[in-house]
Amino acid sequence: MRSVLASLVVCVLLATLVAVAPGASAGKTACEKRNNNTINKLLECVTVDGVRSHQAAWQAAADANEGIRAAGFPGYDASVAYVVETLEAAGYDVELDPFEFTFVPPATLQQIAPIAGTYETGAFTGSGFGTLTGQVIPVDLALDPPRASTSGCEATDFAGLDFSGPADIALIQRGTCFFSTKAVNAEAAGAEAVIIFNQGNSSTRLGLIVGNASTLPDGSPSNLTIPVVGASFDQGVALAQPGSLAFIDVDPPETRINNNVIAELPGKNDDNVVMAGAHLDSVQAGPGIQDNGSGSAAILETAVQMAKVKPVNTVRFAWWGAEELGLVGSTAYVADRTPEELDDIALYLNFDMIGSPNFVYFIYDGDDSDAVGAGPGPEGSAQIEEFFENFYEARDLPFLGTDFSGRSDYGPFIAVGIPAGGLFTGAEVVKTPEQAAIWGGTAGDQYDPCYHLACDTFDNISLEALSVNSDAVAAAVLSYGMNTETINGVKGKGNFQAQNQDFLPNS
Ligand SMILES: [Zn+2]
């Protein structure tokens, strides 16, 4: 299945595989040699240590590549190379599925004087492009409490300020009017770039702000031609000092190609494909070892330990790229399938964040029994939800539904009518006291305090949740690999109906 191009790409990728090649050289374990064709046998072999070894490899990939594994960065390619090598070592034929995406290079903001500093930043949506070093000119700032800023909202705010130079940077404070209004006024006043910093008038308005400046209040486009970057309140205060000089770089987006990784375990029914997927990319702010090294590692370890299994239904594993940019890799994959190929997909299982440190056991609400947010999924999604409910109940573990919102890679599949389901342990939402009483952890803290941050590293994990959910992932993939009768009536291995005792952890 692998094309000449794919072989070439694999060679190139392997070259980037510095310190992350773990197990290929080591001999196969008893587990990997074994046909793990029952849930009991498979769960014995899908261990949290096995899953963690893959997360460790991606941490090393990030460490060797600017600390991140985002789409368009070498850390992502190194992550792909690790998956390819691990699967090939287990005997899989691996396909690289290239897709195009819009790569937005990270913006740069550095203060040069009177103090020096490189500040985390980002380009506002609708920003123009450019690279310049220039004087920073504060515009009607309100730095002292209560900081009721109207900075840049009126053209008169710029009166008396000298923007006649070739590289003048307007420093503007958030507050009162649209970001677009502030930026357009600054450009009209002659600024060659704009820094918008957070308002500082409440605890939620202190950190880095990167917003949308593409549309004016009347709905018309802002048509900005100069760079507009964000900063935190404290950085704004530092930049407002007399004699302030700064360097700004915002490069135009470009089209790049990244790869999804696809690997199959052929079954008798190759027109009744069971898919399990997870995104492999991180955000640009951190290495993404929880989001989504956790889900990617669980399906990788499942694939490794199922390598000798002869399923009834073809099982297809997928590691998606550019999920953090808007489900780009999975959407491209679904869009590239013919109607027949889509018909051949029986169901899709998604695993995105399954070991959050302050976790709750969430199951995608396929039947919309919670009646919140999006409606039910395509026919069959309710049964997948029930499968995972049975899994947790067999272990006396409490669980909750989570909205089938389409915020992860199952979105493109349910959009074309393919039943889907999966697990999630929580991201930026805060745990309630009631939840802490049930699942432990800390009320008032996010389920994942390092969500989309630099601290989403190897240590950002609940081993308890990861262990339980890795078993759930393996149990589901093997069960449906043998029998999807409950989903679509296609008969499988008759006696392979998962019974509750199958879900129990191995002693
Ligand atoms: Zn994610």
Structure description:
The chain is 29% helix and 19% strand. It is an alpha/beta fold and 507 residues long. Helix 6 links the parallel strand 5 (169-173) and strand 6. Helix 4 runs antiparallel to helix 5, helix 4 crosses helix 8 and helix 8 (293-305) packs across helix 14 (463-482). It is elongated, with a radius of gyration of 25 Å. It binds zinc ion. Zinc ion binds at residues 279, 291-292, 323, 352-353.
* The level-1 CATH class of the largest domain: Alpha Beta
Low-pLDDT residue spans: 1-25
What is the N-to-C order of secondary-structure elements (H for helix, E for strand)?
Answer: HHHHHEEEEEHEEHEEEHEHHEEHEHEHHH
The class by helix and strand makeup works out as alpha/beta
pLDDT average, as an integer? Answer: 92
**Order of adjacent strands in the largest pleated sheet:** 1-9-11-10-12-15-13-14
Total count of domains: 2
Give structural attributes.
Glucose Oxidase, domain 1, 15 helices, alpha/beta, 2 domains, single chain, disordered N terminus, 7-stranded mixed beta sheet, binds zinc ion, 507 residues, Aminopeptidase
In short:
By secondary structure, this protein is of the alpha/beta class.
What is this structure's SSE topology?
Layout lengths: L3 H12 L14 H4 L5 H7 L2 H16 L10 H16 L4 E10 L4 E6 L3 E3 L10 E9 L30 E5 L5 H11 L3 E5 L30 E4 L1 H7 L5 E6 L3 E12 L3 E11 L13 H13 L7 E8 L7 H8 L3 H5 L1 E7 L10 E3 L16 H14 L5 E3 L8 H5 L4 E5 L8 H7 L23 H20 L2 H4 L19
Parallel strand pairs: 4-5, 5-6, 6-7, 10-11, 10-12, 12-15, 13-14
Antiparallel strand pairs: 1-9, 2-3, 2-8, 4-8, 9-11, 13-15
Bound molecules: zinc ion (ZN).
